[in-house]
Design a protein that fits this description.
The protein is mainly beta. The radius of gyration is 14 Å and the shape is globular. Strands 1, 2, 3, 4, 5, 6, 7, 8 and 9 form a nine-stranded antiparallel beta sheet that branches. The protein contains no helices and nine strands. It has one domain: Jelly Rolls (Sandwich), CATH 2.60.120.
Length: 123
Amino acid sequence: MTKIYKLGVVGAPVEPCPIPAEDIVSGEPEAHWAVMWQSEDGQLFNGVWHCTPGAFYLDNNDETVCLIEGRATVTPEGGESVNLKAGDTAFLPEGTRSLWEIHETVKKSFHHHDSSGQMLASP
């Protein structure tokens, strides 16, 4: 039987998803997430992510995001900045290292493709 999964982005029961201290550029951003679904091999997963203001680097797998609340500027290394606000959808290709500047607390839904299958396996 096919199952449809549902999770509210704004009120999701999220858990801490710490940003490594060495990746934080400014502020004290706090990230939380909830994984709604994942494939058996751990390569595909989706859910919600919340983050308070601050600036930090993230290394991306293929990720599609849709901001439900907040505002951020995402700048890939060697690329142009993209301003994201509630209602925007963006795609970050695998291998992208980007500076995330969270101006207003962000609440987003996401879909990841992790070709290594290691992101969810990490402690």
